[in-house]
Design brief:
Number of strands: 14
Radius of gyration: 22 Å
Strand content: 15-25%
Helix content: 25-40%
Strand order of the largest sheet: 1-4-3-2-5-6-7-8
Number of helices: 16
Largest sheet: 8 strands, mixed
Structural class: alpha/beta
Distance between the termini: 32 Å
Shape: globular
Protein backbone atom coordinates (compact mmCIF):
# COMPACT_ATOMS: atom_id res chain seq x y z
CA UNK A 1 0.00 0.00 0.00
CA UNK A 2 1.32 3.46 -0.88
CA UNK A 3 1.65 6.10 1.81
CA UNK A 4 -1.17 8.48 2.67
CA UNK A 5 -3.88 6.15 1.24
CA UNK A 6 -3.32 7.40 -2.30
CA UNK A 7 -3.17 5.32 -5.47
CA UNK A 8 0.39 4.59 -6.54
CA UNK A 9 1.24 4.05 -10.19
CA UNK A 10 3.72 1.19 -10.15
CA UNK A 11 6.23 2.78 -12.54
CA UNK A 12 9.39 2.99 -10.44
CA UNK A 13 12.25 5.43 -10.96
CA UNK A 14 15.67 4.02 -11.66
CA UNK A 15 17.67 2.71 -8.74
CA UNK A 16 20.35 4.90 -7.22
CA UNK A 17 22.99 4.30 -4.60
CA UNK A 18 22.28 5.16 -0.97
CA UNK A 19 24.74 8.05 -1.20
CA UNK A 20 23.01 9.50 -4.27
CA UNK A 21 19.61 9.01 -2.63
CA UNK A 22 20.78 11.06 0.34
CA UNK A 23 22.01 13.80 -1.96
CA UNK A 24 18.92 13.88 -4.18
CA UNK A 25 16.63 16.90 -3.87
CA UNK A 26 13.09 15.74 -3.18
CA UNK A 27 10.59 17.26 -5.60
CA UNK A 28 6.79 17.08 -5.53
CA UNK A 29 5.01 18.24 -8.69
CA UNK A 30 1.23 18.74 -8.47
CA UNK A 31 -0.82 18.65 -11.66
CA UNK A 32 -4.51 18.27 -12.43
CA UNK A 33 -4.21 15.11 -14.57
CA UNK A 34 -1.72 13.31 -16.82
CA UNK A 35 -0.85 15.65 -19.71
CA UNK A 36 1.02 14.55 -22.81
CA UNK A 37 3.34 17.57 -22.74
CA UNK A 38 4.39 17.09 -19.11
CA UNK A 39 4.97 13.33 -19.03
CA UNK A 40 8.33 13.46 -20.90
CA UNK A 41 9.44 16.29 -18.59
CA UNK A 42 8.72 14.15 -15.53
CA UNK A 43 10.56 11.23 -17.08
CA UNK A 44 13.56 13.48 -17.74
CA UNK A 45 13.52 14.75 -14.14
CA UNK A 46 13.21 11.23 -12.74
CA UNK A 47 16.24 10.10 -14.73
CA UNK A 48 18.50 12.51 -12.85
CA UNK A 49 20.38 11.27 -9.80
CA UNK A 50 20.17 14.68 -8.10
CA UNK A 51 16.36 14.71 -8.11
CA UNK A 52 13.90 12.46 -6.29
CA UNK A 53 10.59 13.19 -8.06
CA UNK A 54 7.02 12.30 -7.18
CA UNK A 55 4.17 13.60 -9.34
CA UNK A 56 0.85 14.12 -7.60
CA UNK A 57 -2.23 13.90 -9.83
CA UNK A 58 -5.64 15.21 -8.86
CA UNK A 59 -7.62 13.14 -11.40
CA UNK A 60 -7.30 10.39 -14.00
CA UNK A 61 -8.81 12.50 -16.78
CA UNK A 62 -7.61 11.40 -20.21
CA UNK A 63 -6.57 7.89 -19.21
CA UNK A 64 -9.84 6.18 -20.13
CA UNK A 65 -10.74 7.91 -23.38
CA UNK A 66 -13.19 10.47 -22.00
CA UNK A 67 -14.91 12.85 -24.39
CA UNK A 68 -12.88 16.06 -24.56
CA UNK A 69 -15.31 18.96 -24.19
CA UNK A 70 -13.44 21.12 -26.73
CA UNK A 71 -12.37 18.49 -29.26
CA UNK A 72 -15.88 17.06 -29.11
CA UNK A 73 -14.52 13.50 -29.47
CA UNK A 74 -13.14 10.81 -27.20
CA UNK A 75 -9.47 11.47 -26.53
CA UNK A 76 -6.97 8.94 -25.22
CA UNK A 77 -3.32 9.80 -25.84
CA UNK A 78 -1.40 7.14 -27.74
CA UNK A 79 1.95 7.97 -26.17
CA UNK A 80 2.78 6.79 -22.62
CA UNK A 81 1.95 9.41 -19.99
CA UNK A 82 2.68 7.48 -16.78
CA UNK A 83 5.94 5.71 -17.62
CA UNK A 84 9.39 6.47 -16.28
CA UNK A 85 8.52 8.34 -13.08
CA UNK A 86 6.79 7.84 -9.71
CA UNK A 87 3.23 9.15 -9.43
CA UNK A 88 0.30 9.20 -7.00
CA UNK A 89 -3.37 9.82 -7.71
CA UNK A 90 -4.99 11.74 -4.86
CA UNK A 91 -8.62 11.00 -4.06
CA UNK A 92 -10.97 13.67 -5.43
CA UNK A 93 -13.76 14.67 -3.01
CA UNK A 94 -15.52 17.05 -5.43
CA UNK A 95 -19.28 16.64 -5.66
CA UNK A 96 -19.01 17.18 -9.42
CA UNK A 97 -15.53 15.92 -10.37
CA UNK A 98 -13.83 17.24 -13.47
CA UNK A 99 -11.08 19.49 -14.84
CA UNK A 100 -13.38 22.18 -16.22
CA UNK A 101 -14.13 24.13 -13.03
CA UNK A 102 -12.45 25.43 -9.87
CA UNK A 103 -14.34 23.04 -7.56
CA UNK A 104 -14.01 20.06 -9.93
CA UNK A 105 -10.75 19.11 -8.17
CA UNK A 106 -11.10 18.99 -4.40
CA UNK A 107 -8.34 16.65 -3.25
CA UNK A 108 -8.49 17.22 0.47
CA UNK A 109 -5.89 14.52 1.13
CA UNK A 110 -3.21 16.85 -0.21
CA UNK A 111 -3.18 18.57 3.20
CA UNK A 112 -2.23 15.48 5.21
CA UNK A 113 0.09 14.34 2.43
CA UNK A 114 2.12 17.55 2.63
CA UNK A 115 2.41 17.41 6.42
CA UNK A 116 3.59 13.78 6.36
CA UNK A 117 5.91 14.05 3.35
CA UNK A 118 9.63 14.79 3.77
CA UNK A 119 10.49 18.44 3.18
CA UNK A 120 10.58 18.93 -0.57
CA UNK A 121 10.49 21.45 -3.35
CA UNK A 122 6.78 21.58 -4.19
CA UNK A 123 5.91 22.74 -7.71
CA UNK A 124 2.23 23.58 -8.18
CA UNK A 125 0.99 23.93 -11.74
CA UNK A 126 -1.28 26.96 -11.63
CA UNK A 127 -4.02 28.01 -9.23
CA UNK A 128 -7.14 27.18 -11.22
CA UNK A 129 -8.46 24.51 -8.84
CA UNK A 130 -9.21 24.35 -5.13
CA UNK A 131 -6.63 21.54 -4.80
CA UNK A 132 -3.91 23.82 -6.12
CA UNK A 133 -4.77 26.55 -3.63
CA UNK A 134 -4.70 24.01 -0.80
CA UNK A 135 -1.30 22.77 -1.97
CA UNK A 136 0.19 26.27 -2.15
CA UNK A 137 -1.09 27.34 1.26
CA UNK A 138 -0.54 24.14 3.22
CA UNK A 139 2.69 23.35 1.39
CA UNK A 140 4.15 26.55 2.83
CA UNK A 141 2.71 25.92 6.29
CA UNK A 142 4.14 22.37 6.25
CA UNK A 143 7.61 23.73 5.53
CA UNK A 144 8.10 22.86 1.86
CA UNK A 145 9.75 25.19 -0.64
CA UNK A 146 6.73 26.25 -2.73
CA UNK A 147 7.13 27.07 -6.41
CA UNK A 148 4.20 28.31 -8.49
CA UNK A 149 4.29 27.48 -12.16
CA UNK A 150 1.56 29.42 -13.96
CA UNK A 151 1.09 30.36 -17.60
CA UNK A 152 -0.82 33.65 -17.58
CA UNK A 153 0.53 36.32 -19.98
CA UNK A 154 0.54 40.02 -19.09
CA UNK A 155 -0.98 40.84 -22.50
CA UNK A 156 -4.15 39.00 -21.46
CA UNK A 157 -4.18 40.31 -17.90
CA UNK A 158 -3.94 43.95 -18.96
CA UNK A 159 -7.18 43.63 -20.93
CA UNK A 160 -9.09 43.33 -17.65
CA UNK A 161 -10.95 46.26 -16.14
CA UNK A 162 -9.21 48.40 -13.53
CA UNK A 163 -11.59 47.06 -10.88
CA UNK A 164 -10.81 43.46 -11.78
CA UNK A 165 -7.07 44.11 -11.78
CA UNK A 166 -7.18 45.79 -8.36
CA UNK A 167 -9.17 42.88 -6.91
CA UNK A 168 -6.74 40.37 -8.37
CA UNK A 169 -3.76 42.36 -7.08
CA UNK A 170 -5.20 41.88 -3.60
CA UNK A 171 -6.14 38.19 -3.97
CA UNK A 172 -2.99 37.14 -5.83
CA UNK A 173 -0.34 39.70 -4.95
CA UNK A 174 -1.20 40.20 -1.30
CA UNK A 175 -2.58 36.79 -0.32
CA UNK A 176 -1.95 33.74 -2.53
CA UNK A 177 1.46 34.70 -3.88
CA UNK A 178 2.75 35.43 -0.38
CA UNK A 179 2.80 31.66 0.24
CA UNK A 180 5.21 30.99 -2.64
CA UNK A 181 8.99 31.02 -2.41
CA UNK A 182 9.60 31.05 -6.17
CA UNK A 183 7.69 31.64 -9.40
CA UNK A 184 8.66 29.63 -12.48
CA UNK A 185 7.91 31.86 -15.47
CA UNK A 186 7.52 30.23 -18.88
CA UNK A 187 8.37 33.26 -21.04
CA UNK A 188 8.53 37.04 -21.21
CA UNK A 189 4.78 37.70 -21.05
CA UNK A 190 4.41 35.37 -18.09
CA UNK A 191 7.26 37.14 -16.29
CA UNK A 192 5.55 40.49 -16.89
CA UNK A 193 2.37 38.98 -15.44
CA UNK A 194 4.11 38.26 -12.13
CA UNK A 195 5.63 41.74 -12.13
CA UNK A 196 2.12 43.21 -12.38
CA UNK A 197 1.33 41.47 -9.10
CA UNK A 198 4.44 42.66 -7.31
CA UNK A 199 6.58 39.53 -7.41
CA UNK A 200 10.21 40.42 -6.68
CA UNK A 201 12.87 39.71 -9.30
CA UNK A 202 14.81 37.43 -6.96
CA UNK A 203 11.81 35.10 -6.71
CA UNK A 204 11.51 34.64 -10.47
CA UNK A 205 13.11 31.65 -12.23
CA UNK A 206 12.99 30.96 -15.96
CA UNK A 207 11.40 27.55 -16.63
CA UNK A 208 10.91 27.51 -20.41
CA UNK A 209 7.65 26.02 -21.63
CA UNK A 210 8.73 23.08 -23.71
CA UNK A 211 7.72 20.00 -25.64
CA UNK A 212 9.81 16.87 -26.06
CA UNK A 213 12.36 18.44 -28.42
CA UNK A 214 14.40 15.23 -28.59
CA UNK A 215 11.45 13.21 -29.83
CA UNK A 216 10.34 15.79 -32.37
CA UNK A 217 13.91 16.29 -33.61
CA UNK A 218 14.17 12.54 -34.19
CA UNK A 219 10.87 12.65 -36.06
CA UNK A 220 12.05 15.60 -38.15
CA UNK A 221 15.25 13.86 -39.17
CA UNK A 222 13.37 10.67 -39.97
CA UNK A 223 10.43 12.21 -41.84
CA UNK A 224 11.74 15.32 -43.60
CA UNK A 225 13.62 13.36 -46.31
CA UNK A 226 10.29 11.64 -47.05
CA UNK A 227 8.28 14.84 -47.45
CA UNK A 228 6.93 13.97 -50.90
CA UNK A 229 5.94 10.46 -49.81
CA UNK A 230 4.21 11.86 -46.73
CA UNK A 231 2.22 14.30 -48.81
CA UNK A 232 1.15 11.52 -51.13
CA UNK A 233 0.06 9.35 -48.17
CA UNK A 234 -1.85 12.25 -46.57
CA UNK A 235 -3.43 13.27 -49.89
CA UNK A 236 -1.66 16.64 -49.95
CA UNK A 237 -0.56 18.16 -53.31
CA UNK A 238 3.18 18.04 -54.00
CA UNK A 239 3.33 21.43 -55.73
CA UNK A 240 1.66 23.61 -53.08
CA UNK A 241 3.01 25.67 -50.18
CA UNK A 242 1.38 23.91 -47.22
CA UNK A 243 0.02 26.06 -44.37
CA UNK A 244 -0.60 24.18 -41.13
CA UNK A 245 -3.01 25.08 -38.32
CA UNK A 246 -2.84 22.74 -35.31
CA UNK A 247 -5.51 23.00 -32.63
CA UNK A 248 -9.12 22.61 -31.65
CA UNK A 249 -11.83 24.14 -33.81
CA UNK A 250 -13.06 26.44 -31.05
CA UNK A 251 -13.54 30.20 -30.64
CA UNK A 252 -10.33 30.62 -28.64
CA UNK A 253 -8.27 29.28 -31.54
CA UNK A 254 -10.10 31.49 -34.11
CA UNK A 255 -9.87 29.09 -37.09
CA UNK A 256 -12.47 31.17 -38.95
CA UNK A 257 -9.99 34.07 -39.08
CA UNK A 258 -7.54 31.88 -40.97
CA UNK A 259 -10.22 30.71 -43.39
CA UNK A 260 -11.30 34.31 -44.06
CA UNK A 261 -7.68 35.41 -44.50
CA UNK A 262 -6.98 32.52 -46.85
CA UNK A 263 -9.95 33.59 -48.95
CA UNK A 264 -8.38 37.07 -49.28
CA UNK A 265 -4.87 35.85 -50.14
CA UNK A 266 -3.61 36.77 -53.58
CA UNK A 267 -1.28 33.75 -53.53
CA UNK A 268 -3.79 31.16 -52.35
CA UNK A 269 -3.86 29.26 -55.65
CA UNK A 270 -0.32 28.10 -54.91
CA UNK A 271 -1.13 27.16 -51.32
CA UNK A 272 -2.81 24.33 -49.44
CA UNK A 273 -4.33 24.91 -45.99
CA UNK A 274 -4.55 22.13 -43.40
CA UNK A 275 -6.53 22.37 -40.17
CA UNK A 276 -5.11 19.59 -37.98
CA UNK A 277 -7.70 19.19 -35.24
CA UNK A 278 -11.37 18.86 -34.42
CA UNK A 279 -14.05 20.79 -32.55
CA UNK A 280 -17.45 22.42 -32.40
CA UNK A 281 -16.76 24.95 -35.19
CA UNK A 282 -16.32 22.26 -37.85
CA UNK A 283 -19.84 22.74 -39.33
CA UNK A 284 -19.32 26.53 -39.49
CA UNK A 285 -15.96 26.07 -41.17
CA UNK A 286 -17.35 23.59 -43.69
CA UNK A 287 -20.23 25.91 -44.58
CA UNK A 288 -17.79 28.80 -45.12
CA UNK A 289 -15.62 26.68 -47.41
CA UNK A 290 -18.63 25.50 -49.41
CA UNK A 291 -20.31 28.92 -49.62
CA UNK A 292 -17.14 30.59 -50.91
CA UNK A 293 -16.16 27.69 -53.14
CA UNK A 294 -12.70 27.52 -51.53
CA UNK A 295 -10.27 24.91 -52.81
CA UNK A 296 -7.13 23.36 -51.33
CA UNK A 297 -8.39 23.09 -47.74
CA UNK A 298 -8.25 19.99 -45.55
CA UNK A 299 -9.92 19.46 -42.14
CA UNK A 300 -8.21 16.39 -40.71
CA UNK A 301 -10.25 15.57 -37.62
CA UNK A 302 -8.53 14.63 -34.36
CA UNK A 303 -4.91 13.55 -34.86
CA UNK A 304 -3.20 11.76 -31.98
CA UNK A 305 0.33 12.43 -30.77
CA UNK A 306 2.00 9.60 -32.65
CA UNK A 307 0.75 11.01 -35.99
CA UNK A 308 1.12 14.79 -35.61
CA UNK A 309 4.75 14.64 -36.72
CA UNK A 310 3.69 13.54 -40.20
CA UNK A 311 1.66 16.72 -40.74
CA UNK A 312 4.43 18.96 -39.41
CA UNK A 313 6.93 17.26 -41.70
CA UNK A 314 4.60 17.73 -44.69
CA UNK A 315 4.05 21.46 -43.99
CA UNK A 316 5.93 24.58 -45.12
CA UNK A 317 4.72 27.14 -42.56
CA UNK A 318 2.72 27.26 -39.35
CA UNK A 319 -0.12 29.60 -38.30
CA UNK A 320 -1.74 30.16 -34.89
CA UNK A 321 -4.45 32.81 -34.66
CA UNK A 322 -5.61 32.41 -31.04
CA UNK A 323 -7.17 35.05 -28.82
CA UNK A 324 -7.19 35.44 -25.01
CA UNK A 325 -6.83 32.11 -23.27
CA UNK A 326 -3.91 30.93 -25.42
CA UNK A 327 -1.39 31.32 -22.64
CA UNK A 328 1.48 29.89 -24.72
CA UNK A 329 0.57 27.65 -27.66
CA UNK A 330 2.76 24.55 -27.47
CA UNK A 331 1.90 23.51 -31.01
CA UNK A 332 4.23 26.35 -31.98
CA UNK A 333 7.11 24.59 -30.22
CA UNK A 334 6.30 21.41 -32.12
CA UNK A 335 6.22 23.25 -35.45
CA UNK A 336 9.56 24.94 -34.76
CA UNK A 337 11.16 21.55 -34.16
CA UNK A 338 10.17 20.80 -37.75
CA UNK A 339 11.94 23.95 -39.00
CA UNK A 340 8.74 25.82 -39.89
CA UNK A 341 8.37 29.62 -40.22
CA UNK A 342 5.67 31.09 -37.95
CA UNK A 343 2.70 33.40 -38.23
CA UNK A 344 1.26 34.03 -34.76
CA UNK A 345 -1.40 36.33 -33.33
CA UNK A 346 -0.15 38.87 -30.80
CA UNK A 347 -2.30 37.32 -28.06
CA UNK A 348 -0.71 33.91 -28.50
CA UNK A 349 1.38 33.88 -25.33
CA UNK A 350 4.56 32.63 -26.97
CA UNK A 351 4.64 35.23 -29.77
CA UNK A 352 6.85 37.59 -27.73
CA UNK A 353 9.46 34.84 -27.25
CA UNK A 354 9.39 32.63 -30.30
CA UNK A 355 8.87 35.00 -33.24
CA UNK A 356 11.67 37.19 -34.53
CA UNK A 357 9.80 39.33 -37.10
CA UNK A 358 11.26 38.97 -40.57
CA UNK A 359 13.71 36.30 -39.41
CA UNK A 360 11.52 33.28 -38.68
CA UNK A 361 8.04 34.70 -39.24
CA UNK A 362 5.62 37.46 -38.30
CA UNK A 363 3.11 38.50 -35.65
CA UNK A 364 -0.30 39.91 -36.59
CA UNK A 365 -2.98 41.73 -34.62
CA UNK A 366 -5.39 39.21 -33.14
CA UNK A 367 -8.77 39.20 -34.85
CA UNK A 368 -7.70 41.50 -37.70
CA UNK A 369 -8.23 39.32 -40.76
CA UNK A 370 -6.71 41.91 -43.14
CA UNK A 371 -3.46 41.94 -41.18
CA UNK A 372 -3.40 38.14 -41.06
CA UNK A 373 -4.07 37.92 -44.83
CA UNK A 374 -1.35 40.47 -45.62
CA UNK A 375 1.29 38.63 -43.58
CA UNK A 376 0.18 35.25 -44.89
CA UNK A 377 0.52 36.57 -48.44
CA UNK A 378 3.97 37.87 -47.55
CA UNK A 379 5.08 34.40 -46.48
CA UNK A 380 3.42 32.69 -49.45
CA UNK A 381 5.28 35.03 -51.80
CA UNK A 382 8.67 33.86 -50.49
CA UNK A 383 10.82 31.46 -52.47
CA UNK A 384 10.94 27.93 -51.01
CA UNK A 385 14.57 28.38 -49.97
CA UNK A 386 13.69 31.57 -48.07
CA UNK A 387 10.98 29.72 -46.13
CA UNK A 388 13.47 26.96 -45.33
CA UNK A 389 15.96 29.57 -44.14
CA UNK A 390 13.33 31.08 -41.83
CA UNK A 391 12.52 27.59 -40.60
CA UNK A 392 16.15 27.02 -39.68
CA UNK A 393 16.00 30.15 -37.51
CA UNK A 394 12.92 28.68 -35.79
CA UNK A 395 14.87 25.51 -35.02
CA UNK A 396 17.71 27.51 -33.42
CA UNK A 397 15.31 29.52 -31.25
CA UNK A 398 13.39 26.51 -29.95
CA UNK A 399 16.58 24.83 -28.70
CA UNK A 400 16.41 27.18 -25.70
CA UNK A 401 12.92 25.91 -24.89
CA UNK A 402 13.71 22.35 -23.91
CA UNK A 403 13.28 20.11 -20.90
Amino acid sequence: MPAFNDTLILEKPKKTTAKKQRQAQKVLFLNSHPIQYFAPLYKEMASRNDLDLTVLYCSKHGLSGETDREFGVQVKWDIPVLEGYRSFFLKNHAWKPGIYGFFGLMNLGIISYLFKAPKSTLIVHGWGYLSNILAIVFGKIAGHVVCIRGESPASHEQRRSARSLNMRRFVFGKILFSFADYFLFIGNENKRFYKIYGVAENKLRFAPYAVDNKRFDRDFKKLSPRKNDLRKALDIPQDKTVILFSGKYIEKKRPMDLLAAFQQCKNRDGAYLIFMGEGELRPVMERFVEKNNLQNIKLTGFVNQSKVAEYYAAADLFVMCSQEGETWGLSTNEAMNFHLPLLLSDLTGSSADLVKPGENGYVFKTGEVDDLAEKLDLLLSQAPEKLREMGRVSAKIINRYSY
